[in-house]
Write the structure tokens for this entry.
Amino acid sequence: MSAPRTTLRRSIAAAAALPLLAVALTACGYGSDAKDDDAKKTNVSAGGKKLSADTVKIGYFPNLTHATALVGIQEGIIAKELGSTEVKPSTFNAGPSEIEALNAGSIDIGFIGPSPSINGFTKSKGKSLRIIGGSASGGVKLVVNPEKIKTLDDLRGKKIATPQLGNTQDVAFLNWVSEKGWKVDAQSGKGDVSVVRTDNKVTPDAYRSGSIDGAWAPEPTASKLVAQGAKVLLDESTLWPDNKFVITNIIVSQKFLDQHPDVVEAVLRGSVNTNKWINADPDRAKASANTALKTLSGKELPADVIDPAWKSIQFTDDPLAATLDAEAKHAVKAGLLDEPDLAGIYDLKPLNKILKAAGKPEVADAGLGVK
């Protein structure tokens, strides 16, 4: 293994040690500690069948690209499918810490991006998780200081932020730079463009201070910069076939999937129903997501941030498996990942069963499904 890849894995491990922030949404009736007698109750789903687990622990990020989880929990849509099986939500600020929680059994199911899903699967030699569904596509933009950068070619010599070394946006930007024919050392971020790894929470301050000239950032960070005067120079969706690429998918612990397939199926039904609810009434769903964000962070997003951010995200049950495979190849090309064996990373049988029952087309696993 080369030194750069070793360094990345050390950084991933360090990030994985970040403390997770467990948030109990008590206002919605979820997340309270189970009492002794609760465990004795019969758990009945919306379909009237007894479920095999008293609780299901669901992890996600408090941001708009995880709105399926935000809205599904906020509106009780996921809980409805679970009957008296209790939803215990936890929120995370980084993918590696969510993967660590999944491996430790602190969560059972997670909404998460493609890069940590790939890393978690490959580091465990295919034994830790499965991707069982899609959640969101898009919602990533290159935004820049229009006084310094007017065209894509002007990025040369400038300082552009990405959220984290080796994360989904970091890999995407490094791949875009490579396709331009420019050179950047993936580990240090130095080269024809300076890649500055900056936590999304502080990126707006970094932009305001002038320490970065722009960012390849997910929503709502991108729209926060635009509200400060930045300009959208490129929407990443335009780089992908049909303008779609996975930004958030749903993963499950293989142990939990084996032991509680009925609970997993119920959560997936809740996710499918949530995406249907979101797409049927986007404005109401946007307001619901903002309410959930206020509950989690104490602050909702202003209209000039949430409105453009929401429009750039597509909510979909399709995990867009071919784009995850492409993103893995981009990470290999950048020197951030050894050639991975992703065979078996997907188990879409439960999702396709639900979609078929709803009269919807089944989704594909790009040849990476369990046999």
